[in-house]
């Protein structure tokens, strides 16, 4: 498995999936260029699996990751934290060598990305 979902993240994703009307819904996780450090995370729902994707399943959630993103996010843990101000997903990526103060941007070994001014 390329990534891990904590129990809280799993419950939150399943709750959010209830609002999706499509018959097949996938959780898509990956990276894109941008942010202070050059890379940022993508996390959302998708309805298609492309030829360049790998499909995983964890506790009833189908997870889609682009093949080229797997070395950058292998071993990542996604959690969901709830507090008095609301809640949100947190991402712990063991491959990130630099992380932005906001926590949504990072740099991985050998991958420049496209750093932006924050």
Structural overview:
13% of the residues lie in helices and 43% in strands. The protein is mainly β. The protein has a single domain (3-107), classed as Hypothetical Protein Aq_1857, Chain: A (Sandwich), CATH 2.60.300. It has a 6-stranded mixed beta sheet. The protein is globular and about 40 Å long. The mean pLDDT is 86.
Query: Sheet bearing the most strands, described?
Result: 6 strands, mixed
Question: Given this structure, which CATH class is correct?
Answer: Mainly Beta
Category by helix and strand content: mainly beta
**pLDDT averaged over residues:** 86
Q: What's the N-to-C terminus distance?
A: 33 Å
- Number-wise, the strands total 9
Low-confidence sequence ranges: none
Radius of gyration: 14 Å
Number of domains: 1
Number of helices: 2
Topology as a string of helices (H) and strands (E): EHEEEEHEEEE
Residue share in helices? 10-25%
Keywords:
118 residues; mainly beta
Give the secondary structure arrangement, pairings included:
Layout: E1 3-5, H1 7-17, E2 26-33, E3 39-46, E4 53-58, E5 61-66, H2 70-73, E6 76-83, E7 86-92, E8 98-99, E9 105-107
Parallel strand pairs: 1-6, 2-5
Antiparallel strand pairs: 2-3, 3-9, 4-5, 6-7, 8-9
Can you summarize this structure?
Helices cover 13% and strands 43% of the residues. With 118 residues, it is mainly beta.
């Amino acid at each position: 498995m390329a990534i891990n979902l904590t129990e809280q993240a799993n419950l939150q994703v399943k709750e959010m999936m209830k609002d999706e009307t499509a018959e097949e819904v996938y959780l898509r996780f990956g990276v894109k260029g941008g942010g202070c450090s050059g890379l940022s995370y993508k996390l959302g729902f998708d309805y298609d699996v492309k030829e360049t994707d790998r499909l995983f399943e964890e506790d009833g959630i189908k997870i889609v990751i682009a093949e080229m993103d797997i070395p950058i996010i292998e071993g990542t843990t996604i959690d969901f934290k709830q507090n008095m101000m609301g809640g949100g997903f947190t991402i712990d990526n063991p491959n990130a060598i630099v992380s932005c103060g906001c926590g949504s941007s990072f740099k991985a070994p050998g991958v420049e990305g496209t750093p932006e001014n924050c």
